[in-house]
Amino acid sequence: IKTANRLTGNLTASYNINRYVNVVFGGETFQDVAKDEVDSSFFSNGKSTVTYLNYAFFAQGLVKTRLVNIILGARYDKHNVYGDAFVPRVGFTKKFAKFHFKALYSNAFRAPSIENINAAYDSQIKPEKTQVIEVEAGYQVTRKSFLTLNFYDITTKDPIVYYYDTTNFADTYTNFGESGTRGIEAEYR
Q1: Of 3, 24, 36, 42, which has the highest C-beta tally within 10 A?
Q2: Rounded-to-integer distance, Cα 95 and Cα 104, Å
Q3: Spatial separation of the C-alpha atoms in residues 86 and 58, rounded to whole Å
Q4: Three-state DSSP class for residue 35
């Protein structure tokens, strides 16, 4: 029998410098602790308990101008086993009468979970890193109808995937090279 607990904390602040500028910043942390109650069973560290710690700091600013609203942000994560990751975010949005647009670029980071690490193939597993690019334009056709066209590309490098190892008869996790989706989407609402 395995038990796992996660202790989390988060502090976020938001401040309007004026009616055109807003900033959000803060930090968060989580600690995962797992214990294997079976005497002959151990985690990948060779012990019956394992602890992982992750902390992050983030900030984002929104500046509203006559031509475009600008969003700039970043997040810094530090994991006690998998190191650190810096993930930026930038966006441009605006609405002009019945027309609107947005352009977004962002990154994301996900460290492996307790069982991803414990059941990793050859004890090797890496964090996932995702990149998102999106461009959208829309038009309000009537008072109650909208037409939107969206282009997107979402790519995850080293996604963590589960499979059953038929040679060793074991549940296993490994990194897959790359996964994602891209396309064009049109919507009339």
Answers
A1: 36
A2: 15
A3: 10
A4: strand
Dist. CA 172–CA 161, nearest whole Å: 8
Separation between Cα atoms, residue 172 and residue 174, nearest integer Å = 7
What is the separation of C-alpha 97 from the centre of its chain, rounded to a whole number of angstroms?
Answer: 33
DSSP 120: B
79-93: per-residue pLDDT in tens? 998 889 999 999 999
Beta strands per DSSP E along the chain: 2-18, 21-36, 49-64, 69-79, 83-96, 99-110, 128-142, 145-157, 160-165, 170-175, 178-188
Band of pLDDT at residue 153, cut at 50, 70 and 90: very high
Rounded to whole angstroms, what are the CA distances from 84 to 44, 57, 64, 156? 21, 11, 32, 17
